[in-house]
Amino acid sequence: MDALTSSFSIVVVIVLIGLFLKLMYPKLSASISIKKIISKLSYKIVMKIEEKKVLDE
Fold it and tell me: Keyword annotations for this protein (predicted)?
């Protein structure tokens, strides 16, 4: 593919992903928010670190 086709394909994919997320957000709302995902991941990481500290003592 040449540069123009690649650029066009990337733009189309980004627009489609944006539309998909915009349509899905009202149905799933808070369960797919970035803030909620990051907080869950950080909680799991902290719990694993704390668990290792307790086991080492």
Answer: Membrane, Transmembrane, Transmembrane helix
